[in-house]
């Protein structure tokens, strides 16, 4: 389904999911991607615009009850903005684990039933570590889409090498490095944090203010 579809991620969504992974570097993390289906650059072909990312968990990422609860609240909040869940992101716990896990595939399949052009983004822990040390300024995600045989396949390695995934604002990388310098990741709240303390804002409304 993803082969003829272009994916664009907005700056805030990209920065937010990277900061979430950096805050919990010793754990697996995951989250939802929110956006809309659009006409790709007026070409008449389909495109998916990822507008926001909602950090979910840094502990038991495969728990379906908490995922279902989060999906209900996310759809309720973003539905009023004509947005819906269009995908999922995950960073694995083990540093050298660059494979899409069974949990990610299962959650992706769940989202696919409601949004057939769903995207899965897998963060590279190796690239995250290099980014943290400011040794590289390269994208840290890989895009996976579901093919005609209902399997999730890699659509491209990172944003630079993938023709199917682009970042809308080129300034995202310099902004992210600034946030890393100031340890902005400390301010990220995920759904786990919200369930522990409902006063914490899972929407991260003030993160970029």
From TrEMBL:
InterPro entries hit by this protein: EMC8/9, MPN
Domain MPN: 7-158
CC per GO annotation: EMC complex
Coiled-coil region list: none
Alphabetized Pfam families for the sequence: UPF0172
Superkingdom of source: Eukaryota
Family listed: Belongs to the EMC8/EMC9 family.
Listed PANTHER family: ER MEMBRANE PROTEIN COMPLEX, ER MEMBRANE PROTEIN COMPLEX SUBUNIT 8_9 HOMOLOG
Name used for this protein in its record: MPN domain-containing protein
């Amino acid at each position: 389904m993803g082969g003829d579809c272009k994916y664009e991620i907005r700056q805030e969504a990209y920065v937010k999911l990277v900061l979430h992974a950096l805050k919990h570097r010793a754990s697996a993390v995951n989250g939802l991607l929110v956006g809309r289906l659009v006409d790709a650059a007026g070409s008449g072909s389909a495109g998916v615009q990822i507008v926001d990312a909602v950090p979910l968990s840094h502990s038991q990422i495969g728990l379906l009850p908490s995922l279902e609860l989060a999906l209900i609240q996310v759809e309720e909040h973003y539905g009023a903005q004509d947005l819906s869940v269009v995908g999922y992101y995950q960073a694995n716990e083990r540093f050298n684990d660059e494979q899409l896990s069974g949990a990610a595939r299962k959650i992706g399949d769940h989202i696919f039933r409601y949004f057939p052009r769903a995207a899965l983004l897998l963060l590279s822990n190796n690239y995250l570590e290099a980014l943290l040390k400011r040794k590289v300024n390269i994208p840290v995600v890989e895009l996976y889409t579901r093919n005609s045989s209902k399997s999730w396949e890699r659509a491209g390695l990172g944003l630079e090498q993938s023709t199917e995934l682009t970042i809308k604002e080129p300034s995202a990388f310099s902004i992210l490095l600034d946030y890393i310098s100031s340890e902005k990741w400390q301010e990220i709240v995920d759904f786990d944090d919200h369930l522990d303390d409902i006063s914490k804002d899972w929407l991260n409304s003030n993160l970029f203010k």
